[in-house]
């Protein structure tokens, strides 16, 4: 199967991977011929990349590092916790987190086990589904990415669990933000943006009241929008005053935000999201953590069509461990013409050839 931009797909293209909702219900089944109306609906739902059938990639089946059943269980747990928190409000005597903290920890441990025992590079592009609330899915994605960074940095198990729970709860303050502002599809006014920014303070104030939640986890909600140079919020603190967990979660938060499907903008591909992180390395983000993240993810996912610096074009077919930006390609074209015989090129074995562009078609 090939990864394709939804905008570039022509009617009659065959869907190669089913699209689900967050409960695991199939919304569009693989094998379906995509009509103009279906393509329009996908774009309206913010699905900007899908897997399609392709003659050159019939044997490519990208798999998620996190099993579907675990992903659904984790999303359900986060959703239930957040909805109960919203129902109870900011009341002092809400015990939902004290009761559910163990559930969140159990889910984190299951995700950790998958990351620690599986050598595959992490990509969430293979998980194409439609969620009824971005906050729930974003919280899970940030937890997965944060744990991948923590594992790469060899954090101890106890710290990793704390990071995972902190990441799942980093946006809990958004539960108390007006949904009309939170989900506004158009540009926010300055006043609305200030309201959105208040979720860091609200989340911190809520979490620190609970005896079962550590101060470090509460500060994950408080500091994940702070930046090393002091340009972040809510307090504009600099690197020396930031907790390591918050620095780490801030990186995962930005990456997922720019690579996720949203109704008001196209999702970026992983290499584009990584470029944003590297542009801010040292001034905004911890460089060592960004490097650790790069080693964890599939910068160019399987099924992606790319062009090389020597003009050759091909499709990513597998990853090189520890060289996530140097995958193995199946070369389809040379000098703009189909090759007589398709062959493989392992970018991990060559130093003078680089990927220069991602292609919408090949």
Q: Calculate the mean pLDDT score and round it.
A: 88
CA radius of gyration: 21 Å
CATH class assignment of the largest domain: Mainly Alpha
| CATH third-tier fold name of the largest domain | Hypothetical protein af1432
Number of helices: 12
Q: How many strands?
A: 10
The oligomeric state of the chains shown is single chain
Q: What shape does the CA trace take? A: globular
Helix and strand content put the structural class at alpha+beta
State the distance separating the first and last CA atoms: 13 Å
Helical residue percent band: 40-55%
Strand fraction: 5-15%
Largest sheet: 5 strands, antiparallel
Provide the succession of SSEs.
EEEHEHHEHHHHHHHHHEEEEE
Low-confidence stretches: none
Tell me what you see in this structure.
It is a single chain. This protein is of the alpha+beta class and 362 residues long. It has three domains: 51 residues, Molybdopterin biosynthesis moea protein, domain 2; 229 residues, Hypothetical protein af1432 (Orthogonal Bundle), CATH 1.10.3210; 54 residues. Helices cover 41% and strands 15% of the residues. It contains twelve helices and ten strands. The protein has a five-stranded antiparallel β-sheet with strand order 9-8-7-6-10. It has a three-stranded mixed β-sheet with strand order 3-2-5, with no helix packed on it. A two-stranded antiparallel ribbon has the order 1-4. Helix 2 packs antiparallel against helix 3, helix 2 packs across helix 4 and helix 5 crosses helix 9. The longest helix has 22 residues. The two termini are 13 Å apart. The model has no long low-confidence stretch (mean pLDDT 88).
């Amino acid at each position: 199967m090939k990864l394709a931009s939804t905008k570039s797909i022509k009617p009659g293209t065959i869907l190669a991977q089913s699209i689900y909702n967050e409960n695991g219900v199939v919304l569009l089944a693989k094998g379906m011929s995509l009509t103009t109306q279906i393509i329009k609906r996908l774009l309206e739902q913010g699905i900007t990349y899908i897997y399609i059938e392709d003659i050159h990639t019939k044997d490519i089946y990208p798999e998620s590092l996190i099993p579907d059943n675990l992903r659904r269980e984790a999303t359900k747990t986060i959703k239930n916790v957040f909805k109960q928190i919203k129902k109870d409000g900011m009341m002092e005597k809400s015990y939902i987190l004290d009761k559910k903290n163990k559930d969140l920890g159990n889910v984190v441990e299951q995700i950790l086990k998958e990351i620690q025992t599986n050598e595959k590079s992490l990509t969430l592009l293979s998980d194409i589904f439609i969620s009824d609330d971005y906050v729930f899915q974003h919280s899970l994605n940030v937890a997965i990415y944060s744990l991948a960074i923590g594992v790469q940095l060899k954090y101890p198990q106890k710290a990793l669990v704390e990071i995972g729970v902190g990441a799942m709860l980093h946006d809990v303050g958004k539960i108390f933000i007006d949904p009309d502002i939170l989900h506004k599809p158009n540009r926010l006014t300055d006043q609305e943006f200030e309201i959105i920014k208040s979720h860091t303070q609200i989340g911190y104030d809520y979490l620190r009241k609970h005896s079962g939640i550590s101060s470090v986890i509460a500060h994950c909600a408080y500091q994940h929008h702070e930046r090393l140079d002091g340009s972040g919020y809510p307090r504009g603190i600099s690197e020396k005053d930031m907790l390591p967990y918050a620095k780490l979660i801030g990186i995962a938060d930005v990456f997922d935000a720019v690579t996720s499907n949203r109704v008001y903008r196209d999702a970026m591909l992983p290499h584009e999201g990584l470029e944003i992180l590297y542009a801010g390395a040292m001034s905004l983000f911890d460089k060592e953590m960004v490097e650790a993240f790069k080693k964890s993810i599939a910068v160019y996912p399987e099924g992606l069509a790319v062009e090389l610096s020597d003009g050759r074009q091909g499709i990513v077919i597998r990853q090189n461990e520890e060289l996530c930006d140097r995958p193995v390609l199946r070369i389809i074209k040379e000098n703009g013409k189909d090759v007589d015989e398709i062959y493989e090129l392992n970018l991990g074995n060559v130093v003078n050839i680089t990927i220069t562009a991602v292609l919408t078609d090949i």
